[in-house]
Amino acid sequence: MRNGKLVVYLLIIWAWQMPLIAQSTEFTPFVNIATLSNGKKILQLLDSQDIDSKIKLQKLNQYILAEQFQQSPYYAFAYFRILHDIEISRGQPKKAKQAIESMLSIGKELQQTWLEAEAYMWLATFAAKEGNFDNGLNLVERAIRLSKSVQFHHLTARSYNTKAALYYFQDQYYLALELYLSALEIFMIDPEDPYVSKVLSNISIIYLDLEEWDKAWESNYDALQHLEKYGGSNEQYTAFNNNAAFILEQLGRVEESEPYLINAQKYSERTGDIRIKLNNLLAWAHYYISIKQYPRAITFAEQCLNNAQVESYPVIYSDCNRLLAKALHHLGQHKEAIEVLNLSHSLYKEMESQANLADVYALYSLAFEAQGDFQTALIYQRQANIEDKALLFDRRAKMIFNLSEQYKDKYRQQQLALLEAENALQTAKLAEQGTREKLMFFLILVGVFLIFILVKKRYWLESHNKSLQDSNDELYKQSHIDSLTGLYNRRYFLDYLNQLTQLSQRQASQACIAIVDIDHFKAVNDTYGHDMGDEVLIQISKALHANIRDSDLVVRWGGEEFVILLCWPQNYTSIGSEELLAKFERIRLAVCNKPLVMDKLTIPITVSIGISQPLDAKELTLEWHSALEHADKALYQAKGLGRNCVIMAKN
C-alpha cells in the first residue's frame, strides 16, 4: 500500500521551515512580467507545453520585440527562457544553449544580478548534459551565490537541484542528497510547485543507484502521485515512467514494466526533445535485455546511436553503446561487443563515471572469457573489482545511515541527527579496520604502478618534446625554404635583413643586392614543359649557391628570379664596382657554361643580372626596397642589351 510517507514528512518540514523563509521577501521575476505589455500572454507561453514550436516562436516574436528584451531584464528573462524551450523541443541543444548565453550577456550588460544567476544555472545544466562536471559546478556555484544575494529563493532551490545532479553524476550521493533536500525545503513552500515532483524523482534515483529498490520505488511513486495531482511537463511524465519501469525490473516485477515504458514513449514524443526521446530508447533497450529479447534490445540501442544528434549527449551516447555491447555479447557476437565497448570505455573514463566503468570492465571480462582469452578476462575482472571497491567507498550513505529515517530526524532534531551521523561514521570506520592491511598492500601496488607510469610519462614527454621540436623545425623549413630549389625564400630574406641590422650595429660593413633572372624561361616552359622548367630552376640554384661565399645569401624571389645579397666588413679589402661586376660575371659564366642535359636533349641556359651600387650595410637594411629597385632597373637594362650580361646600377 502506497501511503506517500515521503510527501507527508516533507509537508512537516515545510510547516516547520515556513516561518524562517517567510522572514525574507523573495524576489520573483514573474510578478514584474505580469505587469508588462502582453505580460499575461507571455506567462501563458512560458507555462505552455503542448504548443507547436513554430507557432510558439511566432507568438514569442509577436509578444516580445528585440528592442524590448535588449532593454528590459524581465523581457529578456521571458524571451530567452521560451526560446530555450523551443530549441530544446526542436532537438537543437546548441541553439538552446546559445539562447541562455544571450540571456547572460544581457544580464551583464544591464547589470542585473538575478538574470545572470538564472543564466548560470541553465548553463550548468548544459555542462551536466555534456559531461563537463567541473565547469558545471563552477557555474552553479555562481548561480547560488548571486541568487542568494538578491533573495531569489526559487532560483537558489533550482540551483541546488542542478548542483545535486552534478554530484550525482560523479557518484557523490551523500552530497547530492543533502542538496536535493535543501531544494525541497524551499520548493515545499508551495506544495503545488512542479519541482517538488522533480526532486522526489531525483531522490528515488539515488536510492536506485544504492540498490535500495523498495525505497526507490516509493520515492518515484510519490513523484508520480504528485504529478497526477498537480500536473507537470511531458518531460517529467517521461522520466518518471522510465524510472518506474527500471525499478520494477530490479524488483523482479519486469512483467509490470511495459505499460510504464509505453506511457514514457507517448510523453517523450510530445516533448519533441531529442534527449528525452533518446533516454526512452535506452529504457526500452534495457527492458529487452532484462527479458532476454536481445535482437529487440539491439534494435532500440541502434536507433539511439543512429540519431544524428546523439553525440551531443556523451552520457547517453556511452550508455547506448554499453547496452548494445551487452546485447551483442549475449548473442555470442563477442568481437563486435568489444569494439562497441571501446567507445563507451573512453567516454566513461573521460567523465570519471565509476559505476559505468565497473560495468564496462565486467562486460570486457565476460567477452574475452567467451573468446578463450582468460588472461585478459582476468585483468578486466580485477579492474572491475577496483572500480566497484572505489564506488563502494563513495556510497558511504548506504553504510552510514538509513536515508529516509536519517533525514526525518535531521529536520526534526538537528543535534540528534548529527550525533547519529557521527556514530554511524564511527561504525563505518570500525567496519573498515579489518580491510586496512589489504588496502595498504593495494596502495603499495598502486604506488609502484604510479611510479612506473611517471617514469614512462617522463620518457614520453622527452620524446614528445623532441617530436615537437622536429615539427617546429619542419614548419620553419616549410615557411622559409623554397620546396623546389632548396634555397631560402623571400620570407627568410626579410628575417635575414633583421639579423644584418643587428650585425651592422656592432661592426661597420658594406653590402649590395643583385637580381638574377633566367633568360627566355617562358620559352623553355612552353617548348619543353614545366617539368623541364623545374630542372632549369634547380640547376641554376645549384650554380648560384656554388659560386657565393657561406656568408652571402641567395634566395628564390619568385618565378624565374633570384636575389643575391653580398655583405663584407668595411675594413676588408675594398671592393669596388669593377670587383663586383667581375664576381657576378663569374656567376653568369658558371650558369652559361653548363647547359641542361636531359634525355639526350641539351638546353642552353643564360641569365641576366642587375646589381645595385655597394652601400653601407646599415643603410641597405633601411633602404633595401630602393636598392632592390635600382638592381631591377639594371636588370632591365641587361635585358635590353640582349640578355646574358651583367649591369650595375649607375646610382
UniProtKB/TrEMBL annotation:
Location of the GGDEF domain: 509-651
Cofactor: Mg(2+)
One Pfam family per UniProt: TPR_12
UniProt keyword annotation of Transmembrane helix present: yes
GO cellular component, one term: plasma membrane
Keywords recorded for this protein, A-Z: Membrane, Transmembrane, Transmembrane helix
GO terms assigned for molecular function: diguanylate cyclase activity
Protein's UniProt keywords contain tRNA processing: no
CDD domains: GGDEF (cd01949)
Transmembrane regions: 439-455
Gene3D superfamilies: 3.30.70.270, Tetratricopeptide repeat domain (1.25.40.10)
EC number: 2.7.7.65
Catalytic activity: 2 GTP = 3',3'-c-di-GMP + 2 diphosphate
Top EC category: transferase
Superkingdom of the organism of origin: Bacteria
Biological processes annotated in GO: cell adhesion involved in single-species biofilm formation; negative regulation of bacterial-type flagellum-dependent cell motility
NCBIfam families in UniProt: GGDEF (TIGR00254)
Name of the featured protein: diguanylate cyclase
Source species taxonomy: Bacteria, Pseudomonadati, Pseudomonadota, Gammaproteobacteria, Alteromonadales
